[in-house]
Amino acid sequence: MNTPHSPPVSHLLITGAQRLEASGIAPDEARVEARILLSLALGASHEALRLRPERPLTDDEAARFDALIARRARREPLAYITGERAFYGLRLVVSPAVLIPRAETEFVVEATLGHLAGCAAPRVADVGTGSGCIAVAVAVNAPNARVWASDVSPDALAVARTNVKQNGVEGQVTLAHGDLLGPLALFAPFEVIVSNPPYIAAGEVDTLEPEVRDWEPRVALGTHPDGLHFYRRLAGEAPPLLAPGGLLVVEVGHQQAEAVAALWRKAGLRNVAVTNDYAGVARVVSGRHP
Questions:
Q1: Using one digit for the tens of pLDDT, what is the confidence trace for 249-286?
Q2: pTM of the model
Q3: What is the CATH number of the domain that holds 61?
Q4: If 0-12 CB within 10 Å is exposed, 13-18 middle and 19+ buried, where does residue 271 land?
Q5: Which residue range is the domain that position 211 belongs to?
Q6: What is the CATH number of the domain that holds 174?
Q7: Smallest Cα–Cα separation from 194: which of 144, 244, 130, 100?
């Protein structure tokens, strides 16, 4: 019989957070995530939980919450459990087929939009689009832009396609299956070529947090011995596809900015610039086609 007799909301929030802490999640994060997961299990808002802390759960509700806490305690990323992630003011669908969008990547979007501000009908290439976070954010915030986005993973493109549709930019964003700029060259020249490529050296992946190391797609993290592999390729392939004055802008890993900037200069790009993220880490490298 499915009657309310389980411990109340307030008790389960405490015990759920304790289970997450025991798995290695920081206490502050554990408390927030326990509340998110209880809201998901109950189909209730955070406000509803706050207003009724003594509400008991049914057996089914308690079982759903227990299963969600167990998943997070195995260090499955919260975004994969909830199926969504906030990015640049948007709600995006995510799955284990794609990297989870990070706040740092918003700086790449900012650089792209800044360059497009003076363009009447700009064309943008998003290389290795994954969830489509960059392509969708650019299209939503630059309604006059057309964006072509590529990825080698059909499963990633399926996620991107959902995000394109849910954010109402189907008329602006074209998705293409293929490696780097290969499927996009036909649509050149571009005012901006933007990318957040795999930049982690294969040997470093095992040193990452469990949420990244064990759950996010390895191909999107990095499978090459050298974390600069894709930047070298972009330095060779992207400049010929840029319009005069066009921008090549990328996200880079920790301590990679100067090496990537040197590649941009060697490729003949001008006004090469490095931008720091919220933590003061050099995160974005850009350069203009002559």
A1: 999 998 999 999 999 999 999 999 999 998 999 999 99
A2: 0.92
A3: 1.10.8
A4: exposed
A5: 97-288
A6: 3.40.50.150
A7: 130
